[in-house]
Amino acid sequence: MAVYLDYNATTPLHEKVLEAMQPYMGAVNGNPSSLHRFGRLQRDAIENAREQVAALVDARAEQVVFTSGGTEANNLLIKGLCAEPGINRIAISAIEHMSMLEPAAMCDCEVDYIAVDSEGRVTGDALQQVIKNKPSLISVMSANNETGVIQDIQSLAKLARDRGVWFHTDASQAAGKIDISFAQSGVHAMTLSAHKIYGPMGAGALILDKQLPLHSMQHGGSQEKGLRAGTENVAAITGFGAAAELAKKERDQRAVHVRVLRDALENKLQAFEGVEIFSQNSERLPNTLQFGTCGFDGETLLMQLDRHGFAVSSGSACTSGKAEPSHVLKAMSVADELATSAVRVSFGKDNVMAEVDAFVKAFAEILEIKNSAVMLAANV
Amino acid sequence: MAVYLDYNATTPLHEKVLEAMQPYMGAVNGNPSSLHRFGRLQRDAIENAREQVAALVDARAEQVVFTSGGTEANNLLIKGLCAEPGINRIAISAIEHMSMLEPAAMCDCEVDYIAVDSEGRVTGDALQQVIKNKPSLISVMSANNETGVIQDIQSLAKLARDRGVWFHTDASQAAGKIDISFAQSGVHAMTLSAHKIYGPMGAGALILDKQLPLHSMQHGGSQEKGLRAGTENVAAITGFGAAAELAKKERDQRAVHVRVLRDALENKLQAFEGVEIFSQNSERLPNTLQFGTCGFDGETLLMQLDRHGFAVSSGSACTSGKAEPSHVLKAMSVADELATSAVRVSFGKDNVMAEVDAFVKAFAEILEIKNSAVMLAANV
Questions:
Q1: ipTM score here?
Q2: Mutation to test the A interface, candidates B231, B304, B319, B345, most A Cβ within 10 Å
């Protein structure tokens, strides 16, 4: 038995998405920059996908810049803006994904980090605090990949906008799971990733208000209006478009489905002594549950669960193997000992309730073995 | 009828490559950075592909850094080296692809351009000339995408090495078409692209000698030993591996096949008045033929051929739509008028001799119509 409970790390490719990609993996061939009929068919596929991706987040097609993924989109945003003369200070939340934190640390700008409260939320007060330093850009993710905490992006963006500060949000985890509107939220830039919404790896997007003086970070051909050189991955972009269209259509039913499973698991886990649910009082993504288990090491627990057939995460897939406690939980002032025990369960459309029950059974067994070992050691 | 004669722009996905990719587009799911069994299967696929790609160019697996394509690999090489303190001068050939020329122009290094002779070859003398300026890196492409001219990389790399200069070659067009050896040629870095060898779009590689102090250009997770953050495109990388393995096995037979077609077309085209074959006296890729037609505009000719059902290029797909004559032909001192008439035909494994005959017939018709129009105008 192998049960996948790690949909925030990546989602399986939806069969309808694969269907949409198939023609661009053999039958339709050509470079989208080529002027002949072969090239034009590829170009049409990209522009169709651009409409679909824009529609998912209530943006306009011309605002979509396709990239190789969410990491590239975040890098492009940070480095592409910091390359503009006169931009020398930005502020990002302390709980951003590494693909925001690392480019920010590497770029030539001064960086302020926006604090979160113990529930993992960025408050208006915290934002006002960094606005005092007059950043050119503020970035706060729409929903956190570990805890699932959803930020009030519309309010935060308004605070920034009122002070003439650009606002970016990494919506890689939020898009497709909750309602997202580029137009209504008032953000100037937004990051999306295809493989978090049952689309393929290898495609992402930066949704961009044209007023941002973004510099290209990958040079060569003039693809994506000069903002991202390199032959477009047509199959992946087509898949991204199809996944976005499906996500828009199925979002509400998917949300209901995973919320039932998540809530059931949350209720059952709370019955265990020593288990603590992180950000339980925050609004969270309906599929995400992160918890700590007193006295356990998260990665060891992950491997034990893996042996029982359950795939979960000890935080972000991108930081796997690192011994330090999650920077997200640290920012929430969770004690190191509890933070290092963290395990994230993230549900998807294909999970069923029987898997929740089986997971709880396996978890109980692992706890029992550990407790027996501890008692045995105490008796010795 | 639609005949694809633009294999240098991109190749169709080989059916065996698609077969190798299929499991990673649905059945096998997981993030390769995840520690659980789902993640490990993806990791295994990447490492297997790394062996296959290394084998194609006689390199070691640990020298392979996967990227989203050839453009990213070239950008990473140039910008990643120029980010190292103390590296402030490089030299690249004047006929490089835009994905080399543009990053070089944008980076903080001084750039010298290596001249080519009228046949499009970089001579040892030209290389010695730029070595005088003490560059840290020299880059010369293995084969040119437009003319197909093959450079004597082993000799050029030796000249550089003897003077303690690192040597990079963009082998995107050469790999899979001619024999390439990273180990034997003495280069320190090499760029590869999957979609030029019947692999998928969205995968490329920088083959790298570890002694090069390369800085990462995309930050976040620690994928590719920290040299390229971002969730790997497992399906595309798997396809790249499969395409590399096939290319290694089928290279010689593919070369014979396309050379026969190319030589036949070359012979027939020479019978037309005003047609000039570029780099005819150079060693060229067996599949590539670039020619000028006096009095014609290359892009107009391309569109006319497209209406007749033939897909060719007027140069590089990445510079399509630009009115200027090709920088490659300019570097060879081809007169502007002839250069702007350039058309490139690049054959692939699926072309047949009947297509050559049909192409020549269509070309003759287009020339005849033009000549009649000219005569008509002269009579008025």
A1: 0.94
A2: B231
